[in-house]
């Protein structure tokens, strides 16, 4: 049984959540500055679809508990060691920052 949650193909309004960051990332990876707006739009669509898919997979895993946890995202990324390592690194850094804030 596939645990993937199906989403209707509604056309959602574009909010351009990453419109400032993506051109800089694209330039850093060799694109021209400024990159074509169409290229940024396509890359943002791919990124938003990927994030939505990951969230839906994590929600499907956590359906019995009723809430999504960080461990659910780790489980979704278990087959991609680079991404999983990056998530674990970011979690560790976040704990360090929280501990440093607690000291002040």
Automatic annotation (TrEMBL):
InterPro entries: Histone-fold, TFIID_TAF13. It is found in: Nucleus. GO terms for biological process: RNA polymerase II preinitiation complex assembly. This is Transcription initiation factor TFIID subunit 13. Belongs to the TAF13 family. It holds the Pfam family TFIID-18kDa. It comes from the Eukaryota. The keyword Cytoplasm does not apply. One of its GO terms (cellular component) is transcription factor TFIID complex. Coiled coil: none annotated. GO terms for molecular function: protein heterodimerization activity. SUPFAM superfamilies: Histone-fold. Keywords: Nucleus, Transcription, Transcription regulation. The lineage of its organism: Eukaryota, Fungi, Fungi incertae sedis, Zoopagomycota, Kickxellomycotina.
